[in-house]
Amino acid sequence: MRLPSVGDGQSVALFGGSFNPPHEGHVHVSEIALQRGYVDQVWWLVSPGNPLKDHSELGGVVERVQACQKITRNPRIKITAFEARYGLTYTEQTLRRLLPIRPRVNFVWLMGADNLAGFHKWQNWRRIASMLPIMVVDRPGSTLAYRSAKAAIALSRYRIDESDAPILPAMAPPAWTFIHGPRLGVSSTAIRNKLRI
């Protein structure tokens, strides 16, 4: 439940989610952020439970953390249950608690384009955008989210070109970018549905 180790001045992408279960799509989004040199590390913040999702099939935090540890082979992808440790439910709460603990780290929020489509439903989403830069990675079926999503439209003047993404972690928020690239069509929901058959 502790925060991973990180050096002052490094850049870290925070990738929040239920990871119920974790899958190669999560790894893929993380690897894009790492391989293109945008960040030094990616931290998977394993949530106690997404407030916008049904919890009836949600596995325990320890079980999901262990599953995340098994699927990630890159040592620069770190797993933490930081939110469970402090009883945090919403991303804004998490950021208010986490950012002051590591004030010399350049954090960005990492999300798949499928999450951008519903970002406007997150509690205090505008405040989140004002707290740290956001990196959105393309996902199947969501390529046009950077043009059509309500939050993307509202924040359109703060979007930087993908070619400038390497400087995103050092930018003052609000700032965000959309990363195009190969897409991996897998989701936690699809995996759970397949297991039910």
Please describe what this structure looks like.
- The protein is globular.
- 33% of the residues lie in helices and 16% in strands.
- A six-stranded parallel sheet has the order 3-2-1-4-5-6.
- The chain has one domain: HUPs (Rossmann fold), CATH 3.40.50.620.
- The protein is built from nine helices and six strands.
- It has 197 residues and is of the alpha/beta class.
In short:
The chain has 197 residues and is an alpha/beta fold. It has helices at 24-35, 61-71, 82-86, 91-98, 113-116, 125-131, 145-148, 150-154, 188-196; strands at 11-17, 41-46, 77-80, 106-112, 134-137, 176-179.
Characteristics:
Rossmann fold; 9 helices; globular
What is the CATH architecture term? 3-Layer(aba) Sandwich
Can you tell me the number of structural domains? 1
Tally of extended strands?
Answer: 6
The radius of gyration is 16 Å
Strand order of the largest sheet: 3-2-1-4-5-6
Structural class: alpha/beta
Total of DSSP H or I helical runs spanning 4+ residues: 9
Largest sheet: 6 strands, parallel
General form = globular
CATH top-level class = Alpha Beta
Give the H and E element order. EHEHEHHEHHEHHEH
Contiguous low-pLDDT stretches (5 residues minimum) are 187-197
Give the mean pLDDT.
Answer: 88
Write the layout of secondary structure elements.
Blueprint: E1 11-17, H1 24-35, E2 41-46, H2 61-71, E3 77-80, H3 82-86, H4 91-98, E4 106-112, H5 113-116, H6 125-131, E5 134-137, H7 145-148, H8 150-154, E6 176-179, H9 188-196
Parallel strand pairs: 1-2, 1-4, 2-3, 4-5, 5-6
